[in-house]
Structures are given as C-alpha cells and as structure tokens.
Amino acid sequence: MYLVFTTNYFPWLTIIVIFPISAGCLIFFLPHRGNKVTRWYTLCICSLELLLMAYAFYYNFQLDDPLVQLVETYKWIPFFEFYWRLGIDGLSLGPVLLTGFITTLATLAAWPVTRNPRLFYFLMLAMYSGQIGSFSSRDLLLFFIMWELELIPVYLLLSLWGGKKRLYSATKFVLYTAGSSLFLLIGVLGIGLFGSSEPTFNFEISAHQSYAVALEIIFYIGFLIAFAVKSPIIPLHTWLPDTHGEAHYSTCMLLAGILLKMGAYGLVRINMEFLPHAHSIFSPYLITIGAIQIVYAASTSLGQRNLKKRIAYSSVSHMGFIIIGISSLTDTGLNGAILQIISHGFIGAALFFLAGTSYDRIRLVSFDKMGGMAIAIPKVFTMFSILSMASLALPGMSGFVAELIVFFGIITSSKLLLMPRILITFVMAVGMILTPIYSLSMLRQMFYGYRLLNVPTPPFFDSGPRELFVSVSILLPIIGVGIYPDFILSLSADRVEFILSNFFIESFPK
Questions:
Q1: Domain ranges of the chain
Q2: For residue 408, how many C-alpha atoms fall within 13 Å in the half-sphere facing its CB?
Q3: Of 482, 497, 481, which is closest to residue 94 (Cα–Cα)?
Q4: What are the residues whose beta carbons fall under 8 Å from the beta carbon of 1, sequence distance 6 or more?
Q5: What is the model's pLDDT at position 48?
Q6: pLDDT at residue number 223
Q7: How many CB atoms lie under 10 A from the CB of residue 273?
Q8: How far apart are CA 274 and CA 285, in angstroms?
Q9: Where do the H-state alpha helices sit in 61-165?
Q10: Any bridge partners for residue 74, and if so which?
Q11: Contact of 372 with 428, CB cutoff 8 Å
C-alpha cells in the first residue's frame, strides 16, 4: 500500500480530474430545502481536491525534470485511436494548482447563492474537472473534450444566475466559444490525421511531426482563432465584458482567474510546441496586437461606467502582456508570460470578488450612483485599494514582477529589430501609465465623495469573516509571488528552456 501511494503508478491525475464532477453528481441526493449542507459539501470537495493535488505533486513531481511526469495512458476508444492520456510538466503544474485554489475560494464566495444551489454548485464542480482536464491532457482529442466541457456549465451559470441581460450575454458567449471550438476541432483532427501515416492524437508524437509550411500555417490559424477567443485577443474579445458584466461574481472569479488562462496555455502548449515555424512567422504580428491590446483595453476601461465591465477590460489589457511574452521567443519573455498567467489569475479573481461583495451591499454597479463608500465599509475599501494597487503593478506585488520580466523579454528578443522593439516597449509603457489612471479613478468614484454619506445609517454592513478570509487568501500569494517570484518561475523554467531549445534554435538560426 505504501508503494502504491508513493509512486507514479497510482493514477493520481485521473482521480484529480474525475473526482470533482463525480462527487458533484451526489449533490442532487442532498436535501432539497436549505443550502447549508450543499455549501459545506461542495467546499469540502474542493478543499479535499486541492489537498489531493498538493500531496500528489509534492511527493511525485520533480521540479528539475523538464519532461512530462505522472503520465497515465488508457485505451478509451481503440477504433479511433482515442486514449485517456494525462500528464503534467512545469508548464501545466502552475495552472492546475491555480485552478484548485481559485475554485475553492470561488465556492466560498458563492455562499449567498440561494436559488437552486445544488445545480449551481454542481456546475462549478463540472467546470473544475474540465479545467484541470484541459491543463493535464496529453491527447489532442481529450484536450478538445475537456475544453468543451466548460461551455455548458458557463452558459447555465450565466443564463440562470446572471443579471438583467443574462440571456443576451449567455447567447453571445456560446456563439463566440462554440464557433471558435469548431476551429479547434478542425485543427485537432488535422494534426491527428495528417501528421503521420497512422492517426494519432498523442501530444508527444504530434509535437515532433513536421508539416508543409502552408499546412502548418492553416493549422496555426485554426488554433489561434480558438485560443484568441478564450484569451481573449482583440478583436475577438467583445464577449468578455458582457459576460463579466452579467455573471455572478463567483462565476466571474472562475472566468477571470482560470478560463482566460486556458487560451494562453493553449497558445504555448499547441501553437508553440506543435507549430514552431508558423509561430515564428506570426509572432511579430501577435506582439503588435498585444501592444495595441494593452493600450486599447486600458483606454476603453477608463470610459466604462459599469464596475464589472471596467475590471473586465482591465483583464483584456493585462492579457496583452501574456501575448507579447509568448510571442517574444525568449526564455525571459515566456517565463514572464507564464508568471503573468498566475499573477493575473489571482488579481482578476480578487477584483471581481470584491466588486461582487460591494454589489451585495449597495446593489449598484454604475459609477454614476456610487460614492462615499469608504466610511460605510472600510474593510472592503481597504482590500479593494490594496488589490487595485496589485492590478496597477505596484512594486512588491506579483503583477509588477510579471510585467517587468515581459518587458525584459521583448527588449532582448532577437525576433524584432531595434526600432520595433523600442516602439513596442513605448506602447507597453503607455499602457502601464493608463492602468493606474483607470484603477485610481475606480477607487475615487466608488469610495470617495459624499453620495452615500448623506444616508444617516447605511442599510448594509462591512465585510464579514468569510469575505475577509477570501480576500486575504488571495492577497497573500500575490504578495508572496511579488517578493519571491522564483517560487513560480522555478516550476516552468526548465520546461520553457526545453521548448525554446528544441523548437526554435535549430529551426530559426540567428
């Protein structure tokens, strides 16, 4: 028994992927009335899953090994060469742990949900399995299935528990994501069927296949469209503000903290590893789009009168740094992009949680009706201020380190000439200047002024223990990564070096 639980022969990843959705099915056997049992059951499932991940990775994952570990391969549909194939490396370890952490806190944040809580929490657990499955899949077809597993839960969470325009936002989300998934399926089938003499969807085999340049570009465009919608990359980003504007804030935590990062992960995992020639061709264009996205989304965020939409556009702006880091083709830039994936996962989830707690109290999301909240709810004001500083890349916070590393990555990139690098760096700097403008403006419009001070006794209370616990739990890793970023960089550094050395140095001589 000791050997089974302390060696890689135990199916850790299969259990980690299947456990949330399997345990979620038992929710429907819980009592109908009252959601206390349902809430605690779901929280226990998420906590147990997170502990299981921590135990499995601590004792069975070697940080200095760039190869895929904890590999599991089982035949699923032999006729179609479809395997249940899982494995993780330094690139996927961080997103998997981020998924467990954010989902557990999002479950705790969803405490006020009282309408049909069993279905609500089941959908959250189904998303949990799909997200972990996407990050740990080592089979293209399995990756596509896990990718699609997100679609129905998000649609239902948005359409049933959203705001006034929830049906419009849910429909728009489905149209964008389902349409982009068609391109993903075409790319998956194309690589699986045309990559070798025999159909195969194995990541390890597909990553070492060679294609005609024209065919590789076609595959690359298909995957890029799919991942650009999820990331999102302009101009395929318009679903995001509407979705965030209407979704319950616990759902927003999952979207901003994890769902957007799936697109960035796909760009690295598939576009970079499988299609290096095409990625080298498209990288200058992606760098340009990323720089434009930083400034455009930051400028648009400043003009938003809806709190959640302003935070949503800030997420689009910060994702531009990830795109630039991925496209820089340098160790520094790619490590910075991966660090930004983790950093913004924390920061984005925290801001949406605080926006939701504010809405629970004043029932307002329009800046035109806000003001003077600092005295009435000082604890929310304090946490909102601290995490807004993290969003604007204050030194000592994780966002500062991530964006600084991306800066160094683009400056040292040999893919661009000197003048384009200077221009891109200048545009990125402009975006970083705009970030504190809309962040500080958001704080001023919400918490300062006299609007709510005119009410003798505010009809709401300050942040409670549960909300403080969620806020502080997210704040601690933000500060920890900002002070000691090597904790995250050490997870992916060897894998990043492996990717770039195997797919770019030989193919694209300097």
A1: 12-506
A2: 10
A3: 481
A4: none
A5: 94
A6: 92
A7: 18
A8: 19
A9: 90-109, 117-136, 140-148, 151-161
A10: 84
A11: no
Residues of the chain falling short of pLDDT 70 = 1-9, 34, 79-80, 195-197, 450-460, 502-510
Residues 357 and 307: beta-carbon distance below 8 Å: no
Which pLDDT value is given to residue 227?
92
CA distance 322 to 146: 23
Torsion angle defined by CA atoms of residues 103, 340, 365 and 291, in that order, rounded to the nearest 10 degrees: -150
Give the residue among 312, 252, 347, 302 at the shortest CA–CA distance from 442.
302
> Which residues are CB-contacts of 367 (< 8 A; sequence separation ≥ 6)?
305, 306, 307, 310, 442, 445, 446
466 conformational bin, left if phi > 0, alpha if psi -120 to 50, beta if neither? alpha
Q: Which two tokens stand for residue 276?
A: 């290096």
Cα 69 from Cα 10, distance rounded (Å): 12
Nearest Cα neighbor of 476 from 410, 421, 413, 397 is 397
- Comparing C-alpha atoms, which of 337, 425, 446, 351 is closest to residue 389? 351
User: Who's near 491: CB < 8 A, 6+ residues apart?
Assistant: 63, 90, 93, 94
- The angle subtended at Cα 443 by Cα 439 and Cα 444, nearest 5°, is 115
pLDDT confidence of residue 377: 82
HSE of 510 in the Cβ direction (CA atoms, 13 Å)?
9
Distances (CA, A) of 352 to 191, 254, 255, 356, 477: 38, 10, 10, 6, 17
**Contact by Cβ (8 Å): 337, 356:** no
> Can you say whether residue 242 is alpha, beta or left, with left for phi > 0 and alpha for psi between -120 and 50 degrees?
alpha
Residue pair 421/414 in contact by the 8 Å Cβ criterion: no
**Other CB atoms within 10 A of residue 355 CB:** 24
Cβ proximity of 63 and 15 under 8 Å: no
Considering only CA atoms, which of 89, 226, 242, 70 is closest in space to residue 154?
242
0.85 surpassed by pTM? yes
Which amino acid, 440?
A: L
- pLDDT score, position 76: 79
Task: Please say whether the beta carbons of 13 and 86 come within 8 A.
Answer: yes
pLDDT at 7: 44
| Contacts for 171 with CB less than 8 Å, ≥ 6 apart | none
Determine the distance from the C-alpha atom of residue 58 to the mean position of all C-alpha atoms in its chain, rounded to a whole number. 23
Neighbour-count burial of 303, counting CB atoms closer than 10 A to its CB (0-12 exposed, 13-18 middle, 19+ buried): exposed
Neighbour-count burial for 486-503, b at 16+ CB within 10 Å, e otherwise: eebbebbbbbbebbbeeb
Q: How far are the Cα atoms of 66, 71, 129, 496 from residue 493, in angstroms, in the given order?
A: 8, 20, 26, 5
Residue length, the chain? 510
By DSSP bridging, strand 82-88 and strand 69-77 are antiparallel
Neighbours of 224 (CB within 10 A): 26
| Residue 449 token pair | 């002024």
In degrees and rounded to multiples of 5, residue 371 shows phi and psi of: 135, 145
Q: Tally Cβ neighbours within 10 Å of residue 75.
A: 10
Q: What is the CA radius of gyration of the chain?
A: 22
